[in-house]
Amino acid sequence: MTDEHFMRQALREARLAEEKGEVPIGAVVVMNDQIIGRGHNQVEMLNDCTAHAEMIALTSAFNYLGAKYLMEATLYVTLEPCVMCAGALYWSKIGRIVYAAADEKNGYRRVTEGKSPFHPKTKVEYGLLGEESLGMVKAFFQRRRK
């Protein structure tokens, strides 16, 4: 399995969010080439500002493993995590984070001034399928503004 395969699974989750009227962001947690957690934005549906794709995918993975740490796992998410999600990822000690597109307005990098908010051993990569991911988000907001 490749990073692209798993990012496409995260994009599939983002499409589920969009179908429900949510901002199209999706995430999957992978360990040993197996998806152990999935999530997509459910903020509107749950009336919960913390119901971000990453948070839901993390909770799903914790429940699957029966553990609170994900040192051997990778999170694939379609948009740069916000500060709240970055904090949860820090505490999870996740091994790797791959996000598709930067979020200039609400991403963690906007407020961390170049310092990583993640666990020191967490590896972070971005840009994989970034244009496709960002295109979904932009199209969603363009439709809502009409």
UniProtKB/TrEMBL annotation:
Record-annotated active site: E54
Q: Which reaction does it catalyse?
A: adenosine(34) in tRNA + H2O + H(+) = inosine(34) in tRNA + NH4(+)
Cofactor(s) this protein requires? Zn(2+)
- Function per UniProt: Catalyzes the deamination of adenosine to inosine at the wobble position 34 of tRNA(Arg2).
Q: Which HAMAP family match?
A: tRNA_aden_deaminase
Q: How does it assemble?
A: Homodimer.
Which protein family is named in the record? Belongs to the cytidine and deoxycytidylate deaminase family. ADAT2 subfamily.
Q: What is the name of this protein?
A: tRNA-specific adenosine deaminase
Q: What is the lineage of its organism?
A: Bacteria, Pseudomonadati, Bacteroidota, Chitinophagia, Chitinophagales
